[in-house]
Amino acid sequence: MIHQDTIVALATPSGAGAIAVIRLSGSDAIKIADSCFQSVTATKSLSNQKTHTIHLGHIIDDSKTIDEVLVSVFKNPNSYTGEDVVEISCHGSNYIQQEIIQLFLRNGCRMATAGEFTLRAFLNGKLDLSQAEAVADLISSDNEASHQIAMQQMRGGFSSEIAKLREELLNFASLIELELDFAEEDVEFADRTQFKALIERITFVLKRLIDSFAVGNVIKNGIPVAIVGEPNVGKSTLLNALLNEERAIVSEIAGTTRDTIEDEISIGGIGFRFIDTAGIRDTKDVVESIGIKKTFEKIDQAQVVIYLFDSTQFEALESQFIVELEKIKNKYPQKPLIVIANKIDQIDDTQIAVMQKDIPEIQLLSAKTGFGVEQLTNKLLNLINTGALRNNETIITNSRHYDSLLKAFEEIQKVKYGLDTDLSGDLMAIDIRQALYHFGEITGEITNDDLLGNIFANFCIGK
Amino acid sequence: MIHQDTIVALATPSGAGAIAVIRLSGSDAIKIADSCFQSVTATKSLSNQKTHTIHLGHIIDDSKTIDEVLVSVFKNPNSYTGEDVVEISCHGSNYIQQEIIQLFLRNGCRMATAGEFTLRAFLNGKLDLSQAEAVADLISSDNEASHQIAMQQMRGGFSSEIAKLREELLNFASLIELELDFAEEDVEFADRTQFKALIERITFVLKRLIDSFAVGNVIKNGIPVAIVGEPNVGKSTLLNALLNEERAIVSEIAGTTRDTIEDEISIGGIGFRFIDTAGIRDTKDVVESIGIKKTFEKIDQAQVVIYLFDSTQFEALESQFIVELEKIKNKYPQKPLIVIANKIDQIDDTQIAVMQKDIPEIQLLSAKTGFGVEQLTNKLLNLINTGALRNNETIITNSRHYDSLLKAFEEIQKVKYGLDTDLSGDLMAIDIRQALYHFGEITGEITNDDLLGNIFANFCIGK
């Protein structure tokens, strides 16, 4: 354990609540807490208590009682940070929280920086770097899929796989470097066939992980879906119908109001971000063409486009709909497009038949009655490869990991090429070292202060 | 202990943070927690653990891991509610919080209603009613004074005083009722002199407590201060100067922006609510007279009025100032009025002398340089009777208590009158019983469901 100064921070969300938790960590954590704590059984001292025990008493500033609290004691190395940790569970008033933190600051603590508790856990070997990063992901997870990925990563699923491959590669690297020492004797310690097999295995794993990033990224950030449609074709009703399917708004995107329906909805555990757009009918009107330009900007950002129209207006506006659909298809040939005829409860079968003949890919829906909603959610889910998720496969969501994996992949390709072309051992050793370096970046065996600073700055204070 | 169903709620403020705490209470709390918990030392069961211990493990829904958590176990009667209590300290993601609560709901818990944990603490005799009420006050306390009062009340300072008087009174009531049984023999078990002394003591205490309510009320809610002054006389600068004195905005009042400077500032531990008003100069303009009407409405609500003017304009506008001051004094003869000449750093001594001669009560100030600010804060503090606060006297802040004290006081006056006029014992006994009833209302010895419902509905859920 590294002896460090003692840090303090509020660990629970700010604001008033029933209780709040203030966390101290460091070699003086128990001593400092003790100096401000008076147990209900007056003579009890926190220093003499066992780890993982809870004590009722008062936080005292000189003779003034600040609050009645529960104090939890964790002794190193059996704590989150691996240091001595004390958690004060106090009444959840902003005033009390601040008074207690101020008191500890006056008594020798320092305010923790963002992520510093988890940084210490990493430095003390309680977590590897990718597990530490998963803590932040876990806290910000807001749907089942992102939660599951973060949880898996925190439990070491992904980094242990990387660590194992790294170890095997390191083993071969040592053998090849050993060969260099006996260069004149022309021996081969490293079995080239086995080595090739390992490189192929690594290539396979890296490729799978790298490919998973696309899925991971949409899962982490939600899949943007643009809904193109004129006012009153039923966009809000459709969103509400999708919501009812799941009965949970994940969040409203900051800065938008309910009126412009930009909602994030969790469907089958995956977050979808629905972006409302205006229609795109041809116009000479300047104001309207600005609107159309904006619609296209929004479609640019989306991964899926839903074209929604009111089927009671199909007869009157068919040619317009077809022109608009062609426009979208031509502009975005690669982007998944779902065409929905809404309000089909208000038209008859003959009319439906006409629509289906003229626009074969049409999907019938009544947001009002719920008809076709399930089919739509299935279609949305099928658009992303959720197979990996269902099979509990490792998915990469962190762009830092993605970057390191790409670099490692590149180096491994060089090693492979070296093996195929009988490259000399000394040159190959350089490529292997480079690959090892990028593996190490992921788990944190290779770090530098800037990197750590960047990673932990994204944490909230108190974690 | 009353065996009740097991309740669950989030105890920490909602929102994402480093950690969140979910609280269970009830006879099945430990059993239910155990069924969803897998200790890191796989065979450990929560039921076998000592009270006040903490256990690391995972919350499991079937085979799915929801989170790595710390579980605190409190066994009855050694818990907040007096029942078995389990606290789950999980990662502070909204998603995780909800998943864990949902899991417990599916496994036999019921969602706690507002204040239900504290209600159970009261029902199980862990707190009396006024102490329970103090918990809510403590959580909402946002300055030193309100915090100190709530803390004192929670520690029983006020209710133990009432309980003691109630007991003595109850004693006399019994003796007087005993006399009724021996009415024909004309005996006096209750010593009338001692009884008179007790009644006087009670009267004295009640009067002090009742009087303290005025102070308590302003401390709890902040003291409204109207600042009357034209634009640009330096209202914002003055508020900033007061702020700098204390370096803490308590809060901005909801619905107002920084522009209309309605700020709550803590001065010497007391909250002051500053209300910006327009000037009140005489005018024929319709719009302006509406403004003046509003100014007077705001002065109506305030307990203190500050009349602020720009001393560089004194020469030009003196007569207007004097008319306006007269207007305020005539309309509010009882309301404390502080007259401030701002910007005195910009005028010379001769001009100051003229001002002081014409408006003797004037207070010189420069919000810019800070001159006179301390004198102003002292003046504001002196306006309220903070003596009681400094002397650690009991202060009533709760209008329910105030109401019961007033009623008890009324009944005690009847008893006193009865004693003075040699009223018959049976009539006096009725008055005494009434007084006892109102005493009991405060500490909760006399309650009904409606009352309890009202009190605890003001709590947050999770407390």
Detailed description of the structure:
The structure is a homodimer of 463-residue chains. Helix content of chain A is 49%, strand content 18%. Chain A is built from 16 helices and 14 strands. Chain A has helices at 29-35, 94-106, 116-123, 129-140, 144-154, 157-181, 192-221, 235-246, 286-301, 314-331, 349-358, 373-383, 387-390, 399-420, 425-443, 449-457, and strands spanning 7-10, 17-25, 37-39, 53-61, 64-74, 85-92, 110-111, 223-228, 249-252, 263-267, 270-277, 304-310, 337-342, 363-364. In chain A, helix 4 runs antiparallel to helix 5 and helix 6 runs antiparallel to helix 7 (192-221). Mean pLDDT of chain A is 84; it is low at 245-261.
Topology, pairings included?
The structure is a homodimer of 463-residue chains.
Chain A: E1 7-10, E2 17-25, H1 29-35, E3 37-39, E4 53-61, E5 64-74, E6 85-92, H2 94-106, E7 110-111, H3 116-123, H4 129-140, H5 144-154, H6 157-181, H7 192-221, E8 223-228, H8 235-246, E9 249-252, E10 263-267, E11 270-277, H9 286-301, E12 304-310, H10 314-331, E13 337-342, H11 349-358, E14 363-364, H12 373-383, H13 387-390, H14 399-420, H15 425-443, H16 449-457
Parallel strand pairs in A: 1-7, 8-11, 8-12, 12-13, 13-14
Antiparallel strand pairs in A: 1-2, 2-6, 3-4, 4-5, 5-6, 9-10, 10-11
Helix pairs in contact in A: 4-5, 6-7, 6-15, 7-14, 14-15
- Portion in strands of chain A: 15-25%
For this structure, the CATH topology of the largest domain in chain A is: Rossmann fold
The termini of chain A sit apart by 19 Å
Oligomeric description of these chains = homodimer
Strand tally of chain A, please? 14
Radius of gyration of chain A: 29 Å
What share of residues of chain A is helical?
40-55%
CATH class placement of the largest domain in chain A = Alpha Beta
CATH architecture of the largest domain in chain A: 3-Layer(aba) Sandwich
The low-confidence parts of chain A are 245-261
The CATH homologous superfamily of the largest domain in chain A corresponds to P-loop containing nucleotide triphosphate hydrolases
> N-to-C SSE series of chain A?
EEHEEEEHEHHHHHEHEEEHEHEHEHHHHH
Largest interface (C-beta under 8 Å): A-B, 54 and 54 residues
* Biggest sheet: strand arrangement of chain A: 3-4-5-6-2-1-7
Structure classification of chain A: alpha/beta
Mean pLDDT of chain A: 84
* Total helical elements of chain A: 16
Largest sheet properties of chain A: 7 strands, mixed
What general form of chain A does the structure show?
flat
- As for the number of domains of chain A, it is 3
